[in-house]
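Session log. Operator J.P. requested a structure for one protein chain; no other inputs attached. Running the standard single-chain path with token output.
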Amino acid sequence: MKQALADDTEDVSLELGSEEEAALRSAAVRHPLATFFHLFFRVSAIVTYLFCDWFSNSFVACFVTILLLLSFDFWSVKNVTGRLLVGLRWWNQIDEDGKSHWVFEAKKVSTIAASTEVEARIFWLGLIICPAIWTVFFFSTLFSLKLKWLALVVAGISLQTANLYGYIHCKLGEQKSISRITSSFFVAADVSKRQTRRTSENCIKEHGNTASR
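Structure written below.
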């Protein structure tokens, strides 16, 4: 595939490997540590939220523990697991004028360094299911009038939804850049055909004028 760079989304060329590499891609987990920590912090935060009353009677200790787990999860998913498991990355940067810019990057690398289908499936399932669980917690907390937990639940939804939004934007930006390349290719080909047709018509007219003389 051709190398493309469009807006804030970057595509790096993908080299097709052998059948053995394709089989390895569909079967193996190439980044077990990243895959483990992609789920560990967010699942631990949910389990701690559900059963924290069994371990401690201190609301502050439970609140701080869950908030730390959510923060660790946000950082690891944003900066490490997304890049290793699916080749996506997003961040915010400040330019020289002091303006804030959001950058969404999608990279395609060779099969040897790429993530496997299992890793990609684990990444997206964990990224989608956990915010949905925190949304359920939000309504259960609201209806049961446990308002002291409401701020923590909102923090969980905000942090995990931010990563979900960022990586979806990376994925959609990758597809849009490919569609832009395809459309620009066909437009260029159409323009080239029109120019060739006009040149041939002009040659025919000049030949006809010469013959009539």
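Operator note: The radius of gyration is 26 Å.
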